[in-house]
Write a structure and sequence with these properties.
Distance between the termini: 57 Å
Strand content: under 5%
Number of strands: 0
Order of helices and strands: HHHHHHHHHHHHHHHHH
Helix content: over 70%
Oligomer: single chain
Number of helices: 17
Structural class: mainly alpha
Length: 417
């Protein structure tokens, strides 16, 4: 049993080593490079274990990784800090201008994608002779449909797109988490036979209002308190501490109240990011706060993407489900195309939605650690290994293939307009 310090030392050392190797030799985007290096290290350990079984290298590392509660680390640790860092730098004025497009994609797009993925995944599973009930196929649709804010924000650092479209993508990724998690919770309760009132139309609406609406209101309230506290003083160490307390306190309170922690920290980050630099922070404080959250974002991103790559060592896949996992990639891509096209076709009068953005938005639908964490959080069942394999296949494809080619797609599809 290793200590938390030893585990943190191992992950940070591997992140630094793999980051250096990627920068020196592979020259891939940092986050994608770390994921690839983690996968290569996993493959090398598996091959080394086959060649030298007496060394037990594979068992030693998997024993260490087994101590990492991936779901807890992502959902109750890294996510709050990464979402706040992303929201802090988002232009709230530009987001207001794109509010219709963002809300439509985040709400309607996620629901459409969940339905399309679920139905198609179930149909393909039946065709392949794999036993996946429709309810579990819809659970997979719910956890894989929201674009991952961490992965999207990391990918956008390496791609030049029009500012309005970038805000639209960032806003969608930051807000569709709450919608996706509510859908996942409801459909998982239905699939496990524990739904009751929660799976009725009224129950779903109540849950959505409580989680999403309550999370946003909580974030606005705590964000405003933090903003007023920072405005009352001019002391950068204390103001930096206030931002850290804001993130941890808001997320912890949201969990106690049963509201959406991700949406709460996003709302708090947007409010502080919009008002504090103009009215509450000196230039010195702005530099320190910006430097801190840039550093937090980069370090946690590095560790998260490395963990995604290494986690393949401890996941248990069934060979029979690998064909379905491979089919999940085009299914999710097709569903993403339908999800971003439908709002454009239905609401052309909405102004900001553009049919010319559909190819890019489809390819930019990157999934990441949140989908893996939700899949891992499921209780053991016959469908879990199949859903987990499909989730991992989609996440790896979207981050490595779509993430690394997004710049090429942007140059050719956006320029064509």
């Amino acid at each position: 049993m290793i200590s938390i310090f030893d585990l943190a030392a191992l992950l940070l050392t591997l992140s630094a080593l793999f980051g250096w190797l990627n920068r020196r030799f592979l020259r891939m985007p940092h986050s994608i490079g770390l994921l690839v290096m983690g996968l290569l290290a996993s493959l090398a350990l598996v091959l080394a274990d086959l060649a030298f079984p007496q060394q037990h290298l594979y068992q030693d590392l998997t024993r260490v990784l087994d101590q990492v509660d991936f779901t807890g680390v992502v959902m109750n640790g890294m996510l709050a800090f990464l979402l706040f860092a992303g929201a802090l730098n988002l232009d709230l004025g530009a987001l207001r201008d794109r509010a219709f497009a963002v809300s439509t994609l985040a709400l309607l797009g996620t629901v459409i994608s969940t339905a399309v993925v679920g139905a198609a995944f179930w149909a393909v599973a039946q065709a392949l002779g794999t036993s996946v009930p429709l309810a579990w196929a819809l659970v997979f649709g719910a956890l894989i449909s929201p674009t991952d804010p961490v992965a999207v924000l990391a990918t956008l650092k390496n791609v030049k797109v029009p500012e309005a479209l970038e805000v639209e993508m960032q806003g969608e990724a930051l807000f569709n988490d709450g919608i996706g998690i509510v859908l996942f919770t409801v459909l998982l309760a239905y699939a496990t036979g524990r739904g009751g009132e929660a799976t009725s139309v009224g129950g779903v609406a109540t849950l959505l209002l409580h989680e999403a609406g309550g999370g946003v209101l909580l974030g606005i309230a705590t964000g405003y308190v933090a903003y007023r506290a920072m405005k009352a003083i001019d002391d950068f160490p204390v103001e930096v501490l206030i931002t850290l307390a804001l993130v941890t306190g808001t997320y912890a309170v949201a969990q106690k109240l049963g509201t959406s922690g991700p949406l709460a920290v996003v709302a708090a980050g947007l409010l502080v990011g919009e008002r504090a630099p103009r009215y509450a922070m000196s230039d010195t404080t702005q530099r320190y706060v910006s430097a801190l959250w840039t550093l937090v974002d980069e370090v946690l991103n590095s560790v998260l993407f490395l963990l995604i790559g290494l986690e393949v060592l401890v996941l248990r896949f069934q060979v029979s489900g690998l064909a379905l996992a491979a089919c999940a990639v085009p299914i999710v891509l097709a569903a993403r195309l339908v999800a971003v096209s439908t709002p454009v076709l239905l609401f052309r009068w909405g102004g900001n939605l553009s049919l010319g953005n559909v190819p890019f938005l489809t390819w930019a639908g990157v999934r990441g650690g949140i989908s893996v964490a939700l899949a891992l959080s499921m209780l053991e069942s016959e469908a879990k290994s199949t859903v987990l394999a499909a989730t991992y296949a989609v996440v790896l494809f979207t981050i490595i293939v779509q993430g690394s080619t997004l710049g090429f797609v942007a140059r050719h599809t956006l320029r064509a307009r």
